[in-house]
């Protein structure tokens, strides 16, 4: 059995008297899609914010490849190989696709042109961006020089997901990536999620869309009222089961689905 790429143990996050997370464990293996589902306020966003360095948990531990990490901000998580695509789309609309892929890690020209004048090596970025997009099989993006503001919602999401998977990352976290997308675009983003998984990345997918979740998830972590109500798989349980556990109509025995 492969070792987890990302683990959370006993995460607690309180907002005054409001419980964001109450003793939550999470395990993510390389090469799998772990969906996180739950009603509004169940703690999904709080959970991924802790895993992506956007929030520091009050208690508990986070391990990457078995080693404890202490993220003080999103850059710490990125440095550890955890990339996050937030609900609010994290792209710069006026920049082209290649520039977006390299946002915050631009390639500088060699020598003093790069180190002193901060000049960008745009041809190297375009070439690497093209290679990366081809490797991922993103056929929906044709012109790497196209401004992101001229792309459709699904194409923008593809850019954000591609960026997340671009830099030797181990884990990609997606918070409701398809919430604002049409059916065809949703299909494209889900295909990209599967492609990243097949390349060995661990993917955490937060989604309200049960058919999407049951299409791509290997395992499903169910949050309820700040706690994990159980982990199931699309084979062990039906969508009706998942919704029943989410809403508290049904409880799982501790061993189900694992
Ligand atoms: N920054 C915050 N300040 C106060 N309460 C918060 C904050 N973030 C989340 N909460 C509360 O924590 C709980 C979990 O929220 P959240 O993680 O956003 O749930 P979800 O993403 O599953 O809808 C909710 O009760 C929410 O109101
Ligand atoms: Mg949320």
Topology diagram in text:
Blueprint lengths: L5 E10 L2 E11 L4 E5 L6 H8 L7 E6 L2 E3 L4 H6 L2 E4 L11 H5 L10 H4 L6 H14 L17 H14 L4 E5 L7 H16 L3 E5 L3 H7 L2 E6 L2 E6 L6 H9 L11
Parallel strand pairs: 3-8, 3-9, 6-7, 7-8
Antiparallel strand pairs: 1-2, 1-4, 4-5, 9-10
Helix pairs in contact: 6-7
This protein binds adenosine-5'-diphosphate and magnesium ion.
Which properties best describe this structure?
single chain; 258 residues; alpha/beta; Rossmann fold; six-stranded mixed beta sheet; four-stranded antiparallel beta sheet; 32% helix; globular; binds adenosine-5'-diphosphate; binds magnesium ion
Describe, in short, the structure shown.
The chain has 9 helices and 10 strands. By secondary structure, the chain is of the alpha/beta class.
Description:
With 258 residues, the protein is α/β, with parallel strands linked by helices. The protein has a domain at 6-90 and 167-247: Rossmann fold. It is 32% helix and 24% strand. The protein is built from nine helices and ten strands. The chain has helices spanning 44-51, 74-79, 97-101, 112-115, 122-135, 153-166, 183-198, 210-216, 239-247, and strands at residues 6-15, 18-28, 33-37, 59-64, 67-69, 82-85, 171-175, 202-206, 219-224, 227-232. A six-stranded mixed beta sheet has the order 6-7-8-3-9-10, sandwiched between helices. A hairpin with a 2-residue loop joins strand 9 (219-224) and strand 10 (227-232). Helix 6 (153-166) packs parallel to helix 7 (183-198). The longest helix is centred in the C-terminal third of the chain and has 16 residues, at 183-198. It is globular and about 60 Å long. The two termini are 13 Å apart. The relative contact order is 0.17. Bound molecules: adenosine-5'-diphosphate (ADP) and magnesium ion. The site of magnesium ion has 2 residues, from helix 1. Residues 44-45 line the site of magnesium ion.
């Amino acid at each position: 059995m492969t070792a987890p790429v990302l683990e959370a143990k006993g995460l607690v996050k309180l907002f005054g008297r409001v419980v964001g997370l109450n003793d939550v464990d999470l395990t993510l293996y390389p090469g799998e899609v772990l969906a996180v589902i739950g009603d509004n306020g169940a703690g999904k966003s709080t959970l991924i914010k802790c895993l992506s360095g956007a929030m520091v948990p009050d208690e508990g531990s986070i391990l990457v490849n078995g080693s404890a990490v202490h993220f003080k901000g999103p850059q710490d998580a990125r440095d550890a190989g955890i990339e996050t695509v937030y609900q609010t789309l994290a792209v710069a609309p006026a920049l082209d696709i290649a520039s977006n892929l390299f946002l915050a890690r631009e390639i500088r020209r060699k020598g003093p042109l790069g180190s002193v004048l901060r000049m960008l090596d745009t041809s190297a970025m375009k070439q690497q961006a093209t290679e990366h997009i081809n490797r991922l099989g993103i056929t929906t993006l044709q012109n790497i020089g196209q401004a992101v503001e001229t792309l459709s919602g699904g194409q923008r999401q593809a850019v954000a997901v591609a960026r997340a998977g671009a830099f030797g990352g181990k884990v990609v976290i997606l918070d409701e990536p398809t919430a604002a997308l049409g059916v065809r675009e949703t299909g494209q983003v889900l295909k990209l999620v599967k492609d990243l998984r097949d390349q060995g990345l661990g993917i955490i997918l937060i989604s309200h869309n049960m058919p999407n979740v049951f299409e791509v998830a290997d395992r499903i972590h169910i949050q309820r009222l700040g706690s994990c109500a159980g982990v199931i798989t699309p084979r062990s349980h039906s969508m009706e089961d998942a919704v029943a556990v989410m809403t508290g109509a049904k409880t799982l025995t501790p061993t189900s689905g694992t």
